[in-house]
């Protein structure tokens, strides 16, 4: 119990000692930096002598404040004595500010690590025992004072550096304004003195920067040694806690506390490891910043060079202008005198040379500008890409580290809560046992009082009789003890057998659990594969349903089409029959009319010439011959009906009936042509029209009859073609119907197969669910068995404790009887 606060105080004292040693190293000179072996003696005190009072803490606080004040005074003096750097090294304040910021980050990291170790030690002390005085408050004040002062130092340094950088920029601005004035002529010795002065300032700035870099390296080394010492101390404390856990009694409170100490030490070690990684990440960030400052410095130098080149170019332009003016003056003088021709030629040559040099300078300047811009753009892009990649990698590492740290912290908190709950349970059990022991002690005291009363009564009565009675009681008690010991041995053997059986059952349950877990993993994998296949089959089934629906729609459309065609065909046949009947009736009527007309014409007087009579009745004769051949008329009507049906569309069959009207002609009038409203050719349209007298007056009756025979025989063709076309359409529709039926059957078979696969997958899923339920039941059974095993172990421990107590009671009773026997003797 006492080792826990001592170990926590040891961590805190080591952190404070490391901070003090680091401050000593900062205050020391560059050549006289103390070694790590000459640290103050209080850093290597044993853990038994690490109990400090509040007076020591306040004294250490005063000492740290004095050292920090001296360090700040020394740094401020060194900064005030340092000269202002020149403008050519304008990036040195930036680099120094970056170095100081890195130093401030290092100091803040040290204070954070010390504060972390102190806080961990404090948590450890609070978790281990709750009887520790509040001695950590002064140390926390120390760490907060150190943090504030370490932050104050870089801020003042940055402010002073900012002032120096502003002064240097003002000096550069003044120097540029003086250099840009073309009218003023700077003497050469002043320029040399300025260059020497700037070189001296550069050397001083470099020396100062080297001093700062050495200090930063020393701080980094000290920080590394501090982290190593903290990790080493945490490892040692973990080892000591582990040894204490091993040396302590199993299941005791000290063992649990030592295990908790070990966990806390491991947690501190892990924190130091994370602090190391954080230091490495900060060092990489510092390197990136240094590279950025270097690139900025290069850009500034390139800009300065470009400005110098521009100034030279302007000077050359001024010289060229002056040369041109001189050339003009020389030309004017040349007009007055021819003696200066040689000088004019020289001036012209000089002008040409100057123009050539000017063009060369322009080309070189343009090339240099292009190269500088390209290099600058490339460097910026490369640097930005590198920085982005590095920042992304660092962010990923930081996020992963944070997540892992949170997970580990959650696990440790859970373990601490479980240990606290177990400790509370054990405390409750100890209280219950203590109450039971007190009750048993009271009972034993009452028994002892009764025995004493009996002894007193026995001493007052006859000694021999009482001695014999006591001996008999002792014998009976011995017999009872022997019987109880035999019974206990039997109970113990039975309990041991039950324990072995329970262990075997536990091992079997564990093996079965492992097998079931393996099977469950296999089944889950199979289920996932089956689910994937089921999804694919569902997609296929959906596609098949869609295609089946499309096929059904197509079949329905074709069926509707076939039914419509069948209806149209039936209507056409019905119309054909009605037209045939009407034509036959009309034929019979016309035959009767023609017969009557023929008989009337036979009684014409002979005074008329035969030619006139023939010319008059030629149309009637043709009509009569046409009407006397019903077969030809029937063929013509069938041809017209076939042409009419041939024009029907398969989708929208419009039907237009053709009617043939024969009007009787009185006294040789012409027969009206039949009106056929169909899409025929011109020859087909006039093929069955009876000729008029105008068209047949020059033809003989024989030729007209032959033409009628030929047209009637030709008119029988389209009806056969129509039937063939209709039969071809019917065959095509039947083949399409058969193909759609085959496709429908194939789709139904595929649907049935998919349904069977879905059913099998559902069965497998049901089987997996049953296996999972069985696994849950087995897990519950395993938990109940483990709980029963735990309860049996607890009962066994309680029984063993009761047996030990009974043995002790029996020994006490024996001793009492012996004492009574001795007193009776």
From TrEMBL:
Flavoprotein among keywords: no
Biased composition (Low complexity): 48-62
Residue spans of biased composition, Acidic residues class: 133-143
Amino acid composition bias (Basic and acidic residues), ranges on this chain: 23-35
Domain called TATA element modulatory factor 1 TATA binding: residue spans: 710-824
Subcellular location per the Swiss-Prot or TrEMBL entry: Golgi apparatus
Key words of the record: Coiled coil, Golgi apparatus
First-listed, main subcellular location of the protein, grouped into a coarse class: Golgi
One GO CC term on file: endoplasmic reticulum
Domain of life: Eukaryota
Coiled-coil zones: 306-436, 467-593, 723-823
Record bears the keyword Membrane: no
UniProt region (Disordered), positions on chain: 23-198, 232-254, 644-670
Polar residues biased stretches: 157-168
Protein name listed in UniProt: M protein repeat protein
Organism: Cladophialophora carrionii
Organism classification: Eukaryota, Fungi, Dikarya, Ascomycota, Pezizomycotina
